[in-house]
Specification:
By secondary structure, the protein is mainly α. The chain is built from 22 helices and no strands.
Length: 475
């Protein structure tokens, strides 16, 4: 049947190799959560700074990886254009491995291993930024690689596996951090335990690096780099022979006609739409909920143990509802999932803000938060990555996708930074009792839904070249 894989034994291992990059994306961004108090004790407290300066330095150390994420996303397009999708992921894997080992032993080469002190903070930050560059590269290249190698009938499902890998990495690292912390007391955790949390990432990073050596580059990337025979070989491993030749001719025609097109050659609208899609995905507030969930529950009067248990339930819902997107994105369509998910996110986020405003605590707060996360997990979480990997034409995909991913990480940092400022601002708290911030996220969710309805095409079942022709006929 047309668009069905010729050899699932090729597509499956290739896809699952590439999504290890997504797993490391989630793992690396979440591993820091178990180390914050130890980093403060090890790197910050010995400096005897005033509280404001100490908090600022700790915040920078904790969030430093996000600087690398934006840089990696921006550079990913240029790098993959020069060396290919697969080799770009190899660079990301190497950076993940170096970051894992370097973050756990920042004194390496300067002091005895395990005997470093607060003077190595600048090296720790350097290694975290390196890991962030790896995250930025993987966040751009993993979905792009899968989109370019997958048959159109399966592309949405296979790209969504990357989002599943991300939430799996987040979920698993919470348990790994808990297991490591249980091996000793707080003093041991502050001196040694935090090192093992960062070092644990070296295992999946090494697996990722090794597996990447055994997969090819994508057909489109190979043609762009003047390797037509290798491109044909890959296509023949995916499709029946006749269809493989047709697809090769279609890709080759698209690239040969538009080989040197600049970023805005399909019009500014396309690039702006893609960048806004990436930004809005962050501005609906998902990372404020995921990063600050324990504090949100505590602000409603829950004790620490109860807040932690409820936070785990948030992670579990995020994980489970991603499966809905995986198994419906190619049948229901991208646009339908995004619209219904956006309506649900707006409804439940406004409901969450109203609970705070009316001082309603307990199960209703948990319900609204879990329902919001569920709507995001089945729509805007995975499907945004599917759309970003599909909507940009072949010849500008590297540049445009890199720009969109960099914008996404900058928006992530802005939301993560602004949430505690807005949520704890005295005037807003006096007027709205912590509800105002959630209403903003609800409004953004509603506006984002209108944006999807108005500007995003349905890409279900279309080849990447067919999607490209959509922009040439609408501009």
């Amino acid at each position: 049947m047309k668009n069905q894989p010729k050899n699932a034994y090729f597509l499956t291992p290739v896809t699952f190799t590439v999504v290890i990059g997504g797993f490391l994306f989630g793992y690396d961004t979440a591993v820091i959560s178990g180390t914050i108090s130890s980093l403060q004790s090890f790197f910050i407290s010995p400096r005897q700074l005033d509280p404001s300066t100490a908090d600022s330095l700790l915040g920078f150390a904790v969030s430093s990886a996000l600087l690398g994420c934006a840089l990696g996303g921006f550079l990913g397009g240029w790098l993959s254009g020069k060396i290919g999708r697969r080799n770009g992921l190899l660079v990301a894997a190497i950076l993940f491995l170096i970051s894992a080992l370097g973050s756990s032993m920042p004194e390496f080469g300067f002091q005895t291993l395990g005997q470093g002190d607060h003077q190595s903070l600048h090296l720790f930050i350097m290694y975290r930024v390196m890991g962030g560059v790896g995250i930025g590269l993987a966040s751009m290249l993993s979905p792009a690689y899968i989109a370019e190698i997958a048959p159109s009938a399966q592309r949405g499902k296979l790209v969504s596996y990357n989002q599943m890998a991300i939430v799996t990495g987040i979920f698993i690292v919470y348990f790994i951090n808990y297991f490591i912390a249980a091996q000793g007391d707080q003093e041991w955790l502050n001196s040694v335990g935090w090192r093992w949390m960062f070092a644990s990432e070296a295992i999946p990073a090494f697996i990722f690096l090794t597996c990447l050596l055994f997969i090819p580059d994508t057909p489109r990337s190979l043609i762009l780099r003047q390797k037509p025979e290798e491109s044909k070989s890959v296509l023949h491993r995916i499709y029946p022979d006749v269809e493989a030749i047709q697809i090769y001719d279609d890709i080759n025609h698209s690239l040969s006609q538009n080989q040197h097109k600049p970023l805005f050659s399909y019009g500014k609208k396309l690039v702006i739409v893609g960048v806004l899609l990436a930004i809005v995905q962050q501005c609906v507030g998902i990372n404020a909920v995921l990063y600050y969930a324990p504090e949100i529950f505590k602000s409603m009067g829950d004790q620490s143990d109860g807040a932690l248990l409820q936070t785990i339930s948030v992670g579990a819902i995020n994980f489970l509802f991603t499966f809905i997107a995986i198994y419906t994105v190619d049948s229901w369509g991208r646009k339908s999932l995004m619209i219904w998910g956006g309506i649900g996110m707006a409804t439940f986020m406004i409901g969450l803000g109203s609970c705070f405003y009316l001082s309603i605590s307990g199960s209703l707060v948990l319900f609204f938060m879990l329902a919001y996360v569920a709507c995001f997990a089945m729509s805007w979480g995975p499907v945004t990555w599917v759309l970003l990997s599909e909507i940009f034409p072949n010849t500008i995909r590297n540049k445009a996708l890199g720009l969109a991913v960099a914008a996404m990480w900058i928006a992530n940092q802005f939301i993560s930074w602004s949430f505690p400022l807005l949520n704890n601002q005295e005037t807003l708290v006096a007027l709205f009792n912590h509800g105002f911030t959630y209403w903003i996220y609800g409004a953004v969710s509603l506006l984002g839904t209108l944006f999807i309805w108005k500007y995003i095409p349905e890409t279900k079942g279309k080849s990447l070249e067919m999607v490209e022709r959509y922009w040439t006929t609408t501009e």
